């Protein structure tokens, strides 16, 4: 910051160092607008004119509470700041313990590490409350009665002066070792926590490529209730293969139960939260945890719920799979599988571009358009009624990720022009999914059904599930009118 040599500085740039750099630039800019005499006056005020208030606190007054009040500065202290102040304060109460002096240094060191990793990726700083809450779930015995009131538990129930000096119950007694162990766990956990949320950010000792892929995949879908379990697996140093199996089971659970079956959002939360501490303490094996997750999938997974969800989307907005909240994740996974299968070196479909935002660069394209005015579509789909046309346009097999720019260029063009419009725009030079579609000579109702069944086959293999027989899958695609009608009959309807 001031271009002075430091033995402790490791040149680690974080969100916090960036804030300091921004502050330095701001003040340099402000000072550049003043004369030398004005700057000298500012310097004199800073070094000689600042006033400090000295408060003498009676021994009967709680120093910690007073400090919180004085340190408020018009802005509430964060949970991390409150917890640090509390633990340092408690360290002063162990007068007769030789480790109390070391404890304070340990707290300071741990908090330095936490702040470093919380802001280590300036583009995506981590939420300190999310970390503390999930660590609390892993470290202490979880019960739903406590809910998410983790900071109240830590400050009002666990780490209190009363529990150090005169606890109500013997089990409430807090020792130097109790605080030391908790602080050590926080310091160790934050590194794993950062890696879990930034698997492709370089860190020594995290070298398993499959682990990075599985973490990235679960983060794209959503960690949901599995953060404490994953943290416990890393902290307890489980074998890498077993952690990967846990990640696979967690992603399968979240996709099948929530993206497909749309179970209640808190399904399994209490079970998995409770298992995190048991795994950390060695009371559960990671293999038993994985087995339990898979048992939950086997019990709660019902393909008919997916059908009911899609049917509702057709009834409410007539947009079926196009409005499925798991569509982008599913199509991204399919494209990634095609890319890997084809051994393509260049990945053309990135998740940051595909994920749904107001400014998404990648849209979901209807191959057979919703407004089929082009003669190509009239010749092949013109005999269908409005309901059948809607079902086809919004069926899974008719949807593909496409750049907004390309989508705008192709719009309602015929299939041959969508494959290649002659101006270098088309499916032929796009993502792996686009390339696969470009290999088709025609795009007919049967093509949409066939691709939909192919996507379902991928879904079954990818998540190790069964959707049912072909008749049910066709019904799920809302294309059973095709299987019931021959191509010749469709043409003369």
From TrEMBL:
<protein>
    <submittedName>
        <fullName>DUF1524 domain-containing protein</fullName>
    </submittedName>
</protein>
<dbReference type="Pfam" id="PF03235">
    <property type="entry name" value="GmrSD_N"/>
</dbReference>
<dbReference type="Pfam" id="PF07510">
    <property type="entry name" value="GmrSD_C"/>
</dbReference>
<feature type="domain" description="GmrSD restriction endonucleases N-terminal">
    <location>
        <begin position="9"/>
        <end position="87"/>
    </location>
</feature>
<dbReference type="InterPro" id="IPR011089">
    <property type="entry name" value="GmrSD_C"/>
</dbReference>
<feature type="domain" description="GmrSD restriction endonucleases C-terminal">
    <location>
        <begin position="357"/>
        <end position="456"/>
    </location>
</feature>
<dbReference type="InterPro" id="IPR004919">
    <property type="entry name" value="GmrSD_N"/>
</dbReference>
């Amino acid at each position: 910051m001031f271009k002075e040599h430091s033995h402790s500085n490791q040149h680690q740039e974080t969100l916090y160092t960036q804030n300091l750099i921004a502050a330095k630039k701001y003040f340099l800019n402000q000072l550049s607008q003043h004369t030398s005499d004005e700057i000298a006056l500012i310097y004199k005020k800073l070094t000689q004119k600042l006033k400090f208030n000295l408060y003498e606190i009676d021994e009967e007054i709680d120093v910690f509470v007073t400090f919180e009040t004085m340190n408020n500065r018009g802005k509430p202290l964060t949970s991390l700041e409150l917890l640090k102040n509390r633990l340092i304060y408690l360290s002063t109460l162990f007068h007769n313990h030789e480790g109390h002096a070391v404890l304070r240094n340990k707290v300071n060191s741990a908090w330095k590490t936490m702040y470093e990793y919380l802001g280590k990726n300036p583009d995506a700083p981590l939420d300190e409350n999310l970390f503390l809450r999930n660590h609390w779930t892993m470290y202490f015995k979880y019960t739903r009665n406590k809910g998410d009131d983790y900071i109240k538990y830590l400050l009002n129930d666990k780490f209190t002066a009363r529990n150090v000096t005169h606890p109500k119950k013997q089990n409430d007694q807090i020792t130097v070792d109790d605080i030391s162990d908790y602080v050590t766990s926080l310091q160790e956990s934050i590194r794993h926590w950062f890696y879990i949320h930034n698997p492709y950010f370089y860190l020594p000792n995290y070298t398993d490529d499959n682990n990075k892929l599985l973490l990235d995949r679960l983060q794209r879908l959503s960690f949901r209730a599995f953060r404490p379990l994953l943290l416990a697996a890393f902290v307890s140093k489980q074998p890498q293969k077993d952690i990967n199996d846990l990640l696979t089971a967690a992603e399968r659970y979240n996709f099948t139960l929530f993206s497909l079956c749309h179970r209640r959002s808190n399904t399994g939360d209490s079970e998995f939260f409770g298992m995190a501490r048991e795994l950390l303490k060695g009371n559960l094996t990671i293999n038993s945890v994985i087995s339990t997750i898979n048992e939950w999938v086997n019990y709660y997974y019902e393909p008919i719920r997916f059908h009911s969800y899609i049917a509702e989307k057709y009834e409410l907005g007539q947009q079926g799979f196009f409005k499925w909240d798991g569509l982008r994740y599913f199509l991204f996974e399919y494209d990634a599988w095609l890319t890997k299968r084809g051994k393509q070196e260049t990945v053309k479909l990135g998740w940051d571009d595909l994920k749904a935002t107001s400014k998404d660069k990648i849209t979901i394209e209807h191959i057979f358009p919703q407004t089929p005015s082009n003669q190509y579509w009239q010749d092949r789909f013109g005999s269908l009624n409005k309901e059948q046309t809607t079902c086809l346009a919004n069926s899974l097999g008719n949807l593909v990720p496409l750049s907004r720019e390309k989508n705008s260029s192709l719009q309602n063009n015929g299939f041959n022009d969508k494959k290649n419009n002659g101006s270098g725009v088309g499916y032929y030079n796009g993502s792996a999914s686009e390339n696969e579609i470009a290999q088709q000579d025609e795009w007919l109702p049967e093509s949409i059904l066939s691709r939909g069944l192919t996507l379902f086959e991928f879904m079954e293999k990818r998540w190790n599930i069964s959707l049912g027989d072909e008749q049910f899958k066709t019904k799920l695609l809302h294309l059973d009118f095709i299987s019931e009608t021959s191509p010749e009959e469709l043409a003369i309807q």
